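Reopening this one. Same input as before:
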Amino acid sequence: MEEDNTTLYEMILGGLKAETFYSVSVAAYTTKGDGAHSKAKLVQTPGIVPGPPSLWVRPGSGPWVVLRWAPPLDCMEPGSDGPVPPVEILGYRLQFSLKNASLQTTVDFTSREKNFNVTNLSPGSSYIFVLSAKSRAGYGGVVKQEITVPIFPPSGYPIISSAVNITCCSLQFSWLPPSEEESNGEITAYNLAYKEVVEIKPSTTPGYPPALSARPRLVTIPPSESSYTILGLNHSTAYMVQFRVHNKAGPGPFSPPLVCRTQALDTGMLVLKAGKHSFTSALVQLHNSPSLLRISPQVWVSLYRWPLCTP
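Same output, byte for byte:
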């Protein structure tokens, strides 16, 4: 059968190695023998897309997770010893996000990097982590892991304002919550603990231990509040006050003790002397003051001192 010179022939060569150079030439065979070989052409077989790597994800000691991975099976990394496998790993790509959300964060790694810490996660939330390996042919199969970030108790405590309103029988405090990193999740409550400061003296009776300080009283305050007034205190008495914060995992540490002393009974409020009055107002005179002041019966006139508290 005769064929013209425009006929194209095609042949598939199998059993070749990936990412390998081959020299290819073509010669014609006739009944009279071999013809001349064509000019050799150097070609390289394409790379193989790697399979999924191995991935391990474990929670950290706070709102973060620790990731560790290994290359796909039958793969190698640059500079490794041993027989040359079919795929050379050039790097890795990590993608992650909250569960049921699109993969919003992408981080690329070299072939030598094998671990990574993902921080600033939301305690109690579930996250999806997807990892793939890269060869010369591109990124290959992915491995997917899901983990729920555990909730830890707060590691910090509220910041108490230096301005404390003190009277003979009350202490009023205001505070700021700890930072988000120290709260370790949503704040569910505050605790205020207070007690009288009692000097513990050695017992004078043989066989009897010394008197111990009373246990503190504990007040639970809603998370929406940022101030609280302790009422019904004794005058001229020192009190030790501490705060702590709660989340879903439990309470955090107490703040350093703050010691405040209530005012003496005769200095907490100036005496008001009632004068002439009507149904809608009254004339009152401040103690040791000649001036008169007209106020309505519903108004309390008081003057507070602001002693300093000591930590």
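So the earlier flakiness isn't reproducible anymore. For the record, Residues 267-308 have pLDDT under 50 and may be disordered.
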